[in-house]
């Protein structure tokens, strides 16, 4: 009988690094490490060497930054997705794409199971397993954090040291971090308690604190075609290149720092610190352009569906009927979202400078205080009489 195979979602971080020796101890199987690159600068040869040295038999490293940007980040921007009106969903958007490639490798290798290193308290266990099920509903999933005796990240560091697995985490700086093209998240350690004021300069990797940002403002101009950013400062770029360019200028000026308390999928609250400079800029510019090109009713309905879609994505339901239906609506609204948005960046702040579109619904003659041939000021009297009628009836009946 051939030896079993387990595909491991591998990052090279603490949790997945110790998972390889643990799997080899507890399963008679070859471990195939899959590290999906969602667009970060990394020494991939070093990560592969570490995985193999830790006991993996094979290493896969698909580079899918453009797919991530075009098929996940850009749709989120068109939908103005913010979980609880705040979080831009950088981690949540990456997990379904990673799941897709985990299953792809598992099928190629004829693997017996897929393993992830997510904790039993977190959101990502749900997102990975929802994503895996969408591509292979029968694939067994191994979740060591729900099985092993390791109870904390301190325990995990002790286990790594005992097994000779090199990790960068220490008990003094024990943050759990997730990085992709869109963002970096930081959790754990002194971040956990809402009572702690943390020193952002010791935590942030790609974004300056406002204190460190330049003393002079800078302008950035983004061109959109049907809701998708195609140019930055006049230069044609691919979706991933757009985000990289905006990450650079946004990070320089302290844009996209979020320190907040969120409600996890499984019910508990947690505190996280996020760096999302480029997509923060992209979202602000996109919403500014929509305010000029979409009708009031479209914006209102988009807002309702955006809140629902954000919940779906946060909870791991990217591959769902509801997700596809909402996405189709959102994409249809983008037919007129074409134009240029200029933003002014200064010490963590974004100020609108200008917005222009061939499909703009703003009419200076109608919106101004002067006379025009489309609107008659006397028409407002009839409108007010109609809209105030329910209030007048309630007052007459003594109900208010």
Features of this protein?
400 residues; alpha/beta; Rossmann fold; Argininosuccinate synthetase, chain A, domain 2; 3 domains; 5-stranded antiparallel β-sheet; 13 helices; elongated; argininosuccinate synthase activity
Describe this structure in words.
The protein is α/β, with parallel strands linked by helices. It folds into three domains: 4-175, Rossmann fold (3-Layer(aba) Sandwich); 179-356, Alpha-Beta Complex (Argininosuccinate synthetase, chain A, domain 2), CATH 3.90.1260; 367-396. The protein has 13 helices and 14 strands. It has helices at 14-26, 44-53, 65-78, 90-109, 124-135, 153-163, 239-252, 277-293, 296-314, 321-332, 364-367, 379-387, 389-396; strands spanning 4-9, 29-34, 58-60, 113-115, 141-142, 176-179, 184-187, 218-225, 228-232, 235-236, 257-263, 269-275, 339-346, 349-356. The strands form three sheets. A five-stranded parallel beta sheet has the order 3-2-1-4-5, with helices on both faces. Helix 1 links the parallel strand 1 (4-9) and strand 2. The longest helix has 20 residues, at 90-109. The protein is elongated. The model has no long low-confidence stretch (mean pLDDT 93). It is an enzyme of class 6 (ligase). Its main location: cytoplasm.
